[in-house]
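Recall the central idea of this unit: under ordinary conditions, the amino acid sequence of a chain determines the structure it adopts. In this exercise we apply that idea directly, starting from the sequence alone.
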Amino acid sequence: MNFTYFIFFVVIVIGTLVITHWAAERSKTAHQFYVAANSLTGMQNGMAIAGDFISAASFLGITGLIALYGYDGFLYATGFLCSYVILLLLIVEPVHRLGKYSVADVISARFPGNRMRAFVAISGISISILYMIPQLVASGLLIRLLLGVDFRTSVVIIGILMTVYVAFGGMVATSWVQIIKTVLLMGGTLLVVLILLSWMNWNIPGLIKQAVEQNTYGDAYFYPGNLFTHPVEKVSLTLTLLLGTSGLPHILIRFLTVKNGKQARLSAMSASWIIGIFYLMTLILGVGTIALVGSETLTASAPSGNLAALLLAEAIGGDFLIAFVMAVAFATIIAVVTGLIFAATSSFAHDIYYHLWKKEKVNEKKQLQVARMAAVVIGIISILLSIEMEESNVAFLVSITFAVAASTIFPLLCYTFYWKRFTRTGAYATIITGFLSSIILIITGPEGLAISPLANPGILTIPSGFVGGIIGSLVSEKDKEGYQDLLIKMYRDKQEAVSHD
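Accordingly, the structure predicted from this sequence is:
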């Protein structure tokens, strides 16, 4: 075990536990626990969103994919970034106006009832757990390198820590862990980029030339076709990443932590700038890895490319820099997994327990106790699902989650906000067709049974969610009252926000 690595690990763990203890004193009510009492500013929330969104897949997986496949690897980064334009234009403000603690609150504003709330809550919990798996896989790899601990043990350690943060600190702890992570991530990534460019004497053309010489594709490294040989696969991946962000519960609930629509929009815009700058830096890191480390060394260390950023740090800065980069990656995983566990926990405690089970007849103290117990259970489930996924590329695992989110929650929100003919039956049909088609095509894809040729099935599953909603709505009775009630609620909330400002 390298002592420098251990020190960085301990500092981050102690720091996050201190934040959790501080936040626990500010999470005594449901309003504080679930949405931090709407106390975050737009800039703070934007940093927290960036911390929630820039995952291990971005820092480790995408850097590795760019290093291994060049142009095709960068498609992941562009898709993630551009998704925030759609989120900002279509989703942010309605979610803030209609939501209280969860995504199910948003849908229930138009379609009240326990069955609808249950459908949305279960979908959200499933998406959150699916997204947790790649984060815990990446954490296991990091802790194994950092402390020399077995992969499975590493996953358990991270899972326990994340559960503690959520159970005791709530949204306050989750938000500040994510904000601090964003500062560390952006500063650490910039540091590695500057050291890399300095190492190359600021000769960017020379870096590109060296990357061409060291990769397995030669001049074709900067052209499409290295990872995705068929154009349909590229279109499918891009579509999935563009729309998937707007269906991720742990991102959507972040817009409930600010006081008005203006701050919600500022949150999305500031997050977009942070995320955009970060992905530009991952491009430099990926090219730098293949130039200085080489494809043979990279694939020998990790065939999936997950260790690219760490190998680059070791090549240009030795033990201290690699320890620092590991610490940044560890903080990244902490923030994202904490957000995911919190999203699943709040959905269970607020939607399933409080609304469905107890019919809103339970005190806040008991509700918070159940939320904390739910965090433990969800943490255990995620750990058990992650310990056998060591060899999978984390960016690919994330794309699966995006396919499910883009095929279920995204079309459900779009129809709920913008189509007055949308009905309750259509909402059920959207969730069911989108979810089932996603799971079936993922299982039968190249990483599963290898029946379907599409590794990214979004090009089929996303339309199925939309078509399911159309068919379900057209064959059922119109529900004009629900849409009118929705518009009235949004108008009243907007007027209250304007008068408050």
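The domain at 3-500 is CATH 1.20.1730.10 (Sodium/glucose cotransporter).
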